[in-house]
Design brief:
This protein is 49% helix and 9% strand. By secondary structure, the chain is mainly alpha-helical.
Length: 327
C-alpha cells in the first residue's frame, strides 16, 4: 500500500521536473496578467500539461504575478518548476528595442509603447517636461538629440525614466572626445551638429551627398547667411509630404523656418542618424553656397557657388515640376 502511494506520488511529481517546454518562446507578463491568462499563453506554446503544472508551481511558490511584470524566455529544456522559479525570482530576459528613420519624438514614444511595456502618453509627458529635460542638459526642443536611432538591449518592463537614462548613457558614449573635437573645430555644439544633421538627412536621401550638403550649410552659417532649407519649412507647416515649396509657404511663421530666421532652428526636425551626424562632422570643404534638386528627379542636387548659377539650376527644376504637373 505504501509503495503504491509512493509510486502514485512520484508519477504526479516527476513531470514537474522532467516535463519539457520543447520550444523557445518569450512570455510577457503585465501587472494585470492573471494566472488564467498566463496558463492560456503557455498552453498555446507548450501544451496543456506543461502550462497547468507551471501555474500550479506558481501557486505553491505563492508568486504574485502583479509584482513580476517582465519578459521571460522559456527554453526547450525548461520544466514547469524552472519556469515558475524564473518568474518568482524575476529573472527577466532583456529584449532588443530598435528604432530608426523617425522624425518626431512622438513617433519615438509610439514605437517604444509598441515594443515595450510603456504607455505613449507617459513617455511624451517626460519628453515634454522641461525639468526632466534639463536634468540631461537639454531643453524640450533638444531632448530628441539623445534619442539616437539604434538597437538597445533593455528590460521589457523598463520605466520611461530608466529608458531615457539608457538613451542618455548611449548618447554620452557616442559623443566621444574625437567627435567633440570635430564639433568644436566647426564652431558647433553637439546639439547644433545634430540639428544640422537632421536638416541634412531631410534634404537628401543620397548618402554620398550628406557631407557635401552639410558643408554647404556650414558655409552659409559661417557667412551669416540664412540656411533657407526647404525641410525646415515642411517641418514648420507640419507636412513632409509637400513636393513643391511655394513662396507663401516660405513665409510660414515658425522659429523652425530657416527662410524667416537666421541660424539653426531651436531643435532637430528629425532624429538624426549616426551616419549623418558623422557626415556633418567630417564634411569635406568646398565653396558651394546654393543647391537645388536636380531636374532628373534622381534625388541628387545641383550645387552652385554663385546665385546666378543657382537660379539657372532652379529654373530647370521648376520647369520640370511644371511639366510633371507638380503644384
Amino acid at each position: 500500500m505504501v509503495l503504491t502511494a509512493i509510486a502514485v506520488c512520484a508519477a504526479w511529481v516527476i513531470p514537474y521536473f522532467y516535463d519539457r517546454a520543447g520550444v523557445k518562446v518569450m512570455v510577457y507578463i503585465r501587472p494585470e496578467t492573471s494566472l488564467s491568462a498566463l496558463n492560456d499563453t503557455l498552453v498555446a506554446y507548450c501544451g496543456k500539461g506543461f502550462a497547468g503544472r507551471t501555474v500550479h508551481a506558481l501557486l505553491w511558490l505563492d508568486v504574485d504575478l502583479s509584482l513580476r511584470s517582465g519578459a521571460y524566455m522559456i527554453t526547450p529544456t525548461d520544466n514547469p518548476i524552472s519556469c515558475a522559479r524564473k518568474i518568482r525570482n524575476h529573472e527577466q530576459t532583456p529584449v532588443r528595442f530598435t528604432f530608426n528613420n523617425l522624425r518626431m519624438k512622438e513617433q519615438f514614444a509610439q514605437k517604444a509603447s509598441q515594443c515595450l511595456m510603456l504607455r505613449e502618453h507617459e513617455i511624451m509627458a517626460l519628453l515634454n517636461d522641461s525639468a526632466a529635460c534639463s536634468a540631461y542638459g537639454k531643453s524640450v526642443a533638444t531632448i530628441s538629440n539623445i534619442l539616437l536611432p539604434d538597437s538597445y538591449e533593455v528590460y521589457w518592463n523598463i520605466s520611461p525614466d530608466d529608458l531615457l537614462r539608457r538613451m542618455n548613457d548611449y548618447y554620452i558614449r557616442f559623443w566621444s572626445d574625437d567627435r567633440l573635437a570635430k564639433a568644436k573645430a566647426l564652431g558647433l555644439s553637439p546639439d547644433e551638429v545634430q540639428i544640422l544633421a537632421s536638416i541634412v538627412e531631410e534634404e537628401t536621401a543620397q548618402a554620398d551627398e550628406y557631407g557635401k550638403v552639410a558643408r554647404l550649410y556650414i558655409n552659409r552659417l559661417e557667412r551669416g547667411m540664412k540656411l533657407q532649407a526647404d525641410p525646415t519649412v515642411k517641418y514648420a507647416i507640419g507636412d513632409f509630404s509637400i513636393r513643391r515649396i511655394t513662396n507663401s509657404m516660405l513665409k510660414t511663421p515658425s522659429p523652425y523656418n530657416t527662410y524667416m530666421n537666421a541660424g539653426l532652428p531651436p531643435g532637430p526636425i528629425r532624429l538624426a542618424s549616426k551616419r549623418v551626424i558623422d557626415a556633418v562632422l567630417n564634411a569635406p570643404k568646398h565653396d558651394y553656397l546654393y543647391m537645388c534638386a536636380r531636374e532628373d528627379f534622381s534625388g541628387y542636387h545641383n550645387f552652385a557657388v554663385s546665385y546666378s548659377r543657382h537660379m539657372a539650376n532652379a529654373r530647370k527644376y521648376q520647369a520640370e515640376l511644371n511639366r510633371r504637373g507638380i503644384r
